[in-house]
Protein: 6-phospho-beta-glucosidase
Organism: Trabulsiella odontotermitis
Amino acid sequence: MSSFPQGFLWGGALAANQSEGAYQEGGKGLTTVDMIPHGAGRMPVKLGLEKRFQLRDDEFYPSHVAIDFYHRYKEDIALMAEMGFSVFRTSIAWSRLYPNGDEPFPCEAGIAFYHSVFEECKKYNIEPLVTLCHFDVPMHLVTEYGSWRNRKMIDFFTRYARTCFEAFDGLVKYWLTFNEINIMLHSPFSGAGLVFEDGENQDQVKYQAAHHELVASALATKIAHEVNPANQVGCMLAGGNFYPYSCKPEDVWAALEKDRENLFFIDVQARGAWPAYSARVFREKGVVIVKDPGDDEALKNTVDFVSFSYYASRCASAEMNTNNTSAANVVKSLKNPYLEASDWGWGIDPLGLRITMNMMYDRYQKPLFLVENGLGARDEIDANGEINDDYRISYLREHIKAMRDAIDDGIPLMGYTTWGCIDLVAASTGEMSKRYGFVYVDRDDEGNGTLARTRKKSFWWYKKVIASNGADL
Ligand code: BG6
């Protein structure tokens, strides 16, 4: 039986937009996620189908308070340290450093906040793994420039990235440019701040925006290496292989095409050029990418490692409508009849993790980092005030075994950060009741609760897993 290598990074992940709250404190500007309400109004906004550039009094916005990490980060990082974390993934809210996104100089209060967060990590020997953009584009960039459809975003983003690399040099060495970059295809407003006009070719807008993000990501990678050659920069995929629904060749082809749709981004970030298949795909979608002369050269700044989230595998077929069911995050997938599913219908497939990791390493030959994985579930507090989340332990245990098998397959895996290590707001639904954490947060879907933190049974289990470097599951 294989084991985890010495120095394997164990920890958990949060993101600014789903944890910090304090949406207007410290000079922070409004971001896309601040405009996305809970409830019926949520999906049209997330998908970029409805313009919401003003907050409304009659809506509840979960990101505005979230779990109040902004004021409670010392308590939260102490809980992570108690579990033995050696890595903590979070993101920087772009609009805390550049409230509008296009200012020439950053906001000092924003820098001071993250400095303090990363110092706190250092106190416990926890390596921060920091995403520059996790589903939160400053709203001013959306309203004034059309967000990533505009090439100027490359300059705004690289200025912001440079600020981060310089300000946190010596405190942070692991960086991710864009969280789940492929999600911009599936959830364009939350993914990339895109809002569509009636009748326009949405694929054209999305892929032009993707090109701008990919150039920005490559240039940010270059800057990170210039600022400090010890910096390691990763890309980040919303992962999970598509399975063909049957062995019918047309189904196999459909699955390959769906995989490519997502892997397109990582193909560019990890290999430094557009993949061969992209010309035909763009032609079929009526997409013509406008490039600047230096873009192809810029894209050659490839990432040091490939990070990804994995919640579930996916299924595709040629004949069935793949929009009819959601079984794997916001990427539409057919329901796999061989798998159990979470209460939200996400299939549970630990072997799919091993399959996904093998595919990714075969394709990229770069170290992998699993930066999101977990089970969204409803937790109950029992009469003794305890939360016995055995279902979560069982999910994580099976996925850790699959990671171990993938390591045995020869894959260099840098680390593992479970998603939502402290309960946070769900990105898809805006719910608090879809919980992932080892630590329960007293807050409900309507914003009631004290925000107090309580250790769940999984807290003690994960502490033991880390202490044994994954041997005691
Ligand atoms: C990923 C995101 O898509 O999945 C996270 O990077 C998100 O931001 C996570 O929270 C889980 O999805 P959800 O909708 O259950 O929060």
User: Anything to note?
Assistant: Residues 15, 18, 135, 179-180, 238, 309, 329, 372, 376, 419, 426-429, 434 surround 6-O-phosphono-beta-D-glucopyranose (CB under 6 Å). The chain has a mean pLDDT of 96. DSSP finds 16 helices and twelve strands in the chain.
